[in-house]
């Protein structure tokens, strides 16, 4: 069953409880790099959040990039999140 969940996208639910590798604040957004293992590698995964409490909006992104260490994955996820914010701003929550 686990194989089928990963094959059809069910693995993303498992990553929602992933370990936070790094957190950063950028232009009123909170960025979190999330650990997402892909075999012996780490896949680029993160969250962008704006607001607090019930008003908080969260956008999760997962990219195909695979990196060899959690440090590389965290650095890349934070960089990708900054790029997404610069390009899309609040539109990413629509």
Structure at a glance:
The chain is of the alpha+beta class. It contains 3 helices and 5 strands.
Number of strands: 5
Provide the β-strand percentage band: 35-45%
Determine the CATH topology: Double Stranded RNA Binding Domain
Largest sheet: 5 strands, antiparallel
Q: Determine Rg (CA atoms, Å).
A: 13 Å
Low-confidence stretches: 1-16
CATH class: Alpha Beta
Ends apart, CA distance between termini: 33 Å
Order of helix and strand elements from N to C terminus: HHEEEEEH
CATH-level-2 architecture: 2-Layer Sandwich
Q: What is the structural class?
A: alpha+beta
Kindly report the average pLDDT value.
Answer: 84
Can you tell me the overall shape? elongated
| Overall tally of domains | 1
Kindly state the percentage of residues in helix: 25-40%
Helix count from the secondary structure assignment? 3
